[in-house]
Amino acid sequence: MIEYLKKYFHKPELINTSLMMSGKNEDVLNFLNAHILKASISRIIGLIRLFNNKSVKDDERKLIIIKLEAEAKDLELSVKEIKLFISTSMKFDMNHNIQ
Fold first, then answer.
1. Which of 37, 61, 40 is nearest to 51 (CA)?
2. Which of 11, 42, 54, 74 is least buried, going by the fewest C-beta atoms within 10 A?
3. Which has the closest alpha carbon to 10: 75, 61, 96, 67?
4. Dist CA 66 CA 76 (whole Å)
5. Whole-model pTM?
6. Where in the chain are the domains?
7. Mean pLDDT of successive 10-residue stretches along the chain, which has 99 residues
8. Counting runs of H as helices and runs of E as strands, what totals does the chain give?
9. Dihedral through CA 28, CA 29, CA 31, CA 37, nearest 10?
C-alpha cells in the first residue's frame, strides 16, 4: 500500500511510512485527510486572509490570486488521488475477501 501511495500521489514525501505500514485503509484515509486535504485548505484560507488585508497592494493581490489558483489545482489533484485510492482499495478488499 505504501508503494502505491508513493507512486501515485503527487506529494510522496508526505507519506508517513510507519502509519502506512498499519495496512488499515481507515488509518490511511485519516492521514490523507489530516495532512493533505487540511493542509491545502489551510493554505487557501491563509491566502484569502492575505488578499482581504487592506494593506496588501494590488500587485501583491495578483500574486496571491496566482497562488490561490495553484493551491486550488493542488487540492483538486489531491481529491482525485484520494478518490483513486478509495476505489482501488475497495476493489482490493473485495477481491481479497472473495478468495
1. 61
2. 54
3. 75
4. 15
5. 0.67
6. 2-98
7. 56 56 68 80 96 96 96 90 76 52
8. 5, 0
9. 140
